[in-house]
Amino acid sequence: MSKVYETVIGLEVHVELASKTKIFCGCSTAFGGAPNSHTCPVCTGMPGSLPVLNKQVVEYAIAVGLATNCSITQYCKFDRKNYFYPDNPQNYQISQLYLPICRNGGVEIETAAGKKTVGIHEIHMEEDAGKLVHDEWEDCSIVDYNRSGVPLIEIVSEPDMRSAEEVIAYLEKLRLIIQYLGASDCKLNEGSMRADVNLSVREMGAPEFGTRTEMKNLNSFKAIARAIEGERTRQIELIEEGKKVIQETRRWDDNKEYSYAMRSKEDAQDYRYFPEPDLVPIVINDEWIAEIKARQPELRTEKLERYKKEFGLPDYDAEIITGHKKFADLFEATTEICKKPKKVSNWIMGEIIRLLKENEMDPEDIKFSPVNLAKVIELADSGAINSTVAKEVFEEVFKHDIDPDKYVEEKGLKTVNDAGELQAVVEQVIKDNPQSVEDYRNGKEKAIGFLVGQTMKAMKGKANPGMVNKILKELL
């Protein structure tokens, strides 16, 4: 009988925090920027320069810790992790080993298999390294220190996950919590959220964990799922062949769907950690924690329940809208103006999601104001414009955030509700289409749809379809 294997997975998730300046200096953390333009003597590791801790970083770390049910380490400090790497300017990284800021938390995830809690071993603060750019033309590597010193938190989970599905559910949960807190935008494609996967396999029911490997270079949920599948298969094949799995760091190549060894896995002693001599310990008193707790926003789980209760949204709508902070903010602001929650929800789930897909945009890229979305909803709802025109007007709002009222006025798009004017057009349409009139009188109900269409065409889409229908039926 063939053996059944269980996959054991733990994650190290690095999140770039949303502070405007770096963790130990006043340089900008903005993404992009000309190489080495967001730098100073501190973040390029110049001799004699001294770090000064950014208070905002500590507050974000505490906020994430509280939202993930961690206990906050009220006396915590930084340590030096010593290693040489070309993009690491000081030859050490300021991190936290002995007293990380948050410990022993956990978040609840839900998958097809049901609910479970994934434990969080710790969350610690650290600085990011620079970035090597490999120039194949010149056959050299050049370094950009813009990212060096950008504040990170590293969220280290317990080895509680057993499948790619659970890993994605856990990452989605973390991403939403952190986005709702405003602690990071968590854009995987820009590297502001990165996950390293620690994975081992063991025979089902075995008490001991197998030998684990760590996989790096994962910048999308799809790549993470593929890497887990690929590494699980590789390890099982090795075991079945009677070979040993080596503890090492591997790099996942998503194009080739294959991972290859980077280096044998270092342990803490390889980094010769010692307390950071240039920074004093951080003392976090109860008042400070209480103050941050009081500022915590409503997170997704509470929002979901409130949207169903307060606005009467169906489960499906509430799930989609709260699934993105930008959608939730837009929904609340627009509903506040027009007081039509279900209509707002329909626009977000229909036209807005369609246009985002068509333009290959993320919800964060939405630039139009809730005021203008509310105006489109009001115009359509009052019958001032019909649904076809409403979609056309909204497309302009989506692209250029135009004022819908002015746009409708200038382009003459208001629905014609004048019975006299409509009747004249309908009479002409009847005159021009004797065959359809004949068909309708012979019991072909569909023929009236054609006549409505012809009338709308003649009115350049601005007629009230209900009135057109009514007039046609009366005349026929």
Automatic annotation (TrEMBL):
Heterotrimer of A, B and C subunits. This is Aspartyl/glutamyl-tRNA(Asn/Gln) amidotransferase subunit B. Its EC number is 6.3.5.-. The keyword ATP-binding applies. PANTHER family: GLUTAMYL-TRNA GLN AMIDOTRANSFERASE SUBUNIT B MITOCHONDRIAL AND PROKARYOTIC PET112-RELATED (PTHR11659), GLUTAMYL-TRNA(GLN) AMIDOTRANSFERASE SUBUNIT B, MITOCHONDRIAL (PTHR11659:SF0). PROSITE patterns: GATB (PS01234). GO terms for biological process: glutaminyl-tRNAGln biosynthesis via transamidation; translation. Allows the formation of correctly charged Asn-tRNA(Asn) or Gln-tRNA(Gln) through the transamidation of misacylated Asp-tRNA(Asn) or Glu-tRNA(Gln) in organisms which lack either or both of asparaginyl-tRNA or glutaminyl-tRNA synthetases. The reaction takes place in the presence of glutamine and ATP through an activated phospho-Asp-tRNA(Asn) or phospho-Glu-tRNA(Gln). Residues 329-476 form the Asn/Gln amidotransferase domain. It catalyses: L-aspartyl-tRNA(Asn) + L-glutamine + ATP + H2O = L-asparaginyl-tRNA(Asn) + L-glutamate + ADP + phosphate + 2 H(+); L-glutamyl-tRNA(Gln) + L-glutamine + ATP + H2O = L-glutaminyl-tRNA(Gln) + L-glutamate + ADP + phosphate + H(+). Belongs to the GatB/GatE family. GatB subfamily. One of its GO terms (molecular function) is asparaginyl-tRNA synthase (glutamine-hydrolyzing) activity. It is an enzyme of class 6 (ligase). SMART domains: GatB_Yqey (SM00845). SUPFAM superfamilies: GatB/YqeY motif, Glutamine synthetase/guanido kinase. Keywords: ATP-binding, Ligase, Nucleotide-binding, Protein biosynthesis, Transferase.
